[in-house]
Amino acid sequence: MPDIREFKWKQCLIVRADIKMSCGKKCAQIAHAAIGAYEKADKIARKAWLDEGQKKVVLKVTAERQLFELKTIAERAGIPASIIQDAGMTEIPPGTVTALGLGPARSENLDRITGDLTLL
Questions:
Q1: 56: number of CA atoms within 13 Å, CB side?
Q2: What are phi and psi of 103, to 5 degrees?
Q3: Whether 15 contacts 29, CB under 8 Å
Q4: Residue 21 belongs to domain spanning
Q5: Which segments of the chain are extended strands (E)?
């Protein structure tokens, strides 16, 4: 029987689906969100998440406003959050809000905030 791992910690990375971005651009914005949120997490959350295998879930929203609403909810719950704005050097205008990183945090806490979102 295979070893089935239970992840207690994760990151949720959320990207806007209403902006035209290439696959590579989306990946870069999601990566920025992951690092930004990780840097805001405390040492205990970082270590637990790293030791467990760094689970990440990539989700999508259809509007900028949703990212800010999710960020506010997460911060009120004590979850690290990082909004990403693009520099505008390639595909989209400078200052465009593209993504949000949440966590690492307890999976059940993130699920309460992002459970209704769709996978990218």
A1: 16
A2: 90, 180
A3: yes
A4: 9-115
A5: 9-16, 56-61, 81-85, 97-106, 118-119
**How many domains does the chain fold into?**
1
| Contacts with 43 (C-beta within 8 Å, 6 or more apart), sequence order | none
Longest CA–CA span in the chain (Å) reads 51
pTM above 0.90, yes or no: yes
Q: How many CB atoms lie within 10 A of CB 33?
A: 27
Q: What are phi and psi of 77, to 5 degrees?
A: -90, 5
Distance CA 45, CA 104 (A): 6
In a domain, 120, yes or no: no
Q: How far apart are CA 91 and CA 78, in angstroms?
A: 33
Q: What is the CATH number of the domain that holds 108?
A: 3.40.1490.10
pLDDT digits (tens, 9 = 90+) for 43-78: 999 999 999 999 999 999 999 999 999 999 999 999
Span 71-84, pLDDT tens digits: 999 999 999 999 99
Q: Which two tokens stand for residue 2?
A: 């295979």
- Residue 106 domain-assigned? yes
